């Protein structure tokens, strides 16, 4: 089940406010490497993809693996562009959709919260198997059809 709007907002705040903190850089890189399908809100998904693509850099033009620009002026510039020119993210994105970027999500966002967010990102609701009574009825109906 993808992140709801509140968790998505906190995740985007984390990425855009704590990038200069060395403690959070690897966690931000890990978050950016996740698939966008984990973000439920369509506008937040566009913001996530903008940050994901914008913070991606290539070390060289050869076969070196790509890496993330986390920290420094390049990160600040990409976040400021998103915040002050939301139309760069998408035509339907407004200033109200990105006003929270760059603001710290609060003290409750710590490593335990981050781990929970990752679990939520990949949590897929399991399909419940049919109750035994329903399964027996279906199999009985199928056997009746075969014999007739």
Explain what this protein looks like in three dimensions.
With 148 residues, this protein is an all-alpha fold. It has helices at residues 5-17, 22-32, 42-54, 72-84, 95-98, 111-122, 132-147; strands spanning 56-57, 67-68. The protein has one domain. It has a two-stranded antiparallel sheet. Helix 1 packs parallel to helix 3 and helix 3 (42-54) runs antiparallel to helix 4 (72-84). The protein is globular. The termini are far apart. The mean pLDDT is 84.
Helical content, roughly?
Answer: 55-70%
Please provide the count of β strands. Answer: 2
- What's the number of structural domains? 1
Give the H and E element order: HHHEEHHHH
Strand content: under 5%
Which structural class matches the secondary elements? mainly alpha
Q: C-alpha Rg, in Å?
A: 22 Å
Strand order of the largest sheet: 1-2
Provide a quick synopsis of the model.
The protein has 148 residues and is mostly helical. It contains seven helices and two strands.
Annotate the secondary structure layout.
Layout: H1 5-17, H2 22-32, H3 42-54, E1 56-57, E2 67-68, H4 72-84, H5 95-98, H6 111-122, H7 132-147
Antiparallel strand pairs: 1-2
Helix pairs in contact: 1-3, 3-4
Key terms:
mainly alpha, 7 helices, 148 residues
């Amino acid at each position: 089940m993808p992140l709801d709007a509140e968790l998505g907002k906190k995740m985007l705040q984390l990425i855009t406010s704590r990038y200069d903190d060395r403690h959070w850089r690897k966690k931000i890189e890990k978050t950016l490497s996740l698939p966008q399908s984990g973000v439920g809100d369509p506008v937040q998904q566009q913001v996530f993809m903008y940050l994901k693509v914008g913070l991606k850099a290539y070390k060289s033009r050869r076969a070196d693996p790509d890496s993330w620009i986390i920290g420094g002026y390049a990160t600040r510039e990409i976040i400021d562009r998103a915040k002050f020119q939301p139309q760069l993210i998408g035509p339907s994105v407004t200033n109200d959709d990105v006003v929270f970027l760059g603001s710290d999500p609060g003290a409750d966002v710590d490593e335990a919260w981050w781990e929970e967010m990752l679990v939520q990102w990949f949590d897929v609701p399991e399909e419940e198997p049919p109750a035994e009574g329903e399964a027996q009825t279906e199999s009985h109906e199928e056997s009746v059809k075969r014999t007739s």
